[in-house]
Amino acid sequence: MKFELTASMMCANYGNLEKEVRELEEGGIDSYHIDIMDGRYVPNYAMGLHDMKYIAGATKKPLDVHLMVEHPNNHIGLFLNNLREGDTVYIHPEAEYHPSTTLQAIIDAGMIPGIAVNPGTSVENVFELLRIVKKVLVMSVNPGNAGQMFLPYVGKKITKLLSIKDDMHFELYWDGACSANRIREFAPKGVRGFVLGTTLLFGKEQPYGVTLQNIRELKF
Question: What pTM was estimated for this model as a whole?
């Protein structure tokens, strides 16, 4: 069974980011997930524009840029000008007055438009945007920090999104508390990709390549 694995780079070792990027690439990671936080939309600061630029220049693998910022349209050009065609940019619909305008800017720049859906956000609240985006990142934890507890009611939201994704032409991705058991459960149902953080990938006493291979060889 084929599914995508993306590394949550806010969990990487910033003492040697070049080594982290190289070893993840050599280990077979599909893409790099870049969490940008402004300390306003979420109560934390994480990666910034220069971190994103560095990783974009250090790999040819795609980037998934997750903008956890207020009013992303105010600064969307800063990010789009430093990405490559085909990279993905996710916004949170609640963070913008007119999210469709921001998504159109992402499309016009040649990027893949996506929305991130918080645990407390219903499918109905973002339904019309599903006609615009190509990717939906479902947050199974509240955004802003790594290592949070999984919120089990999110599973029902994923089931609802899976039932309409083919008709509305988007792919579904999982972000937060991603364990082997959740990949076993939701990959066969149609979730296309999983963001890997401290639960499965980072902080383990084995090479990234071994960890990633073990995940790809999970028994379903």
Answer: 0.94
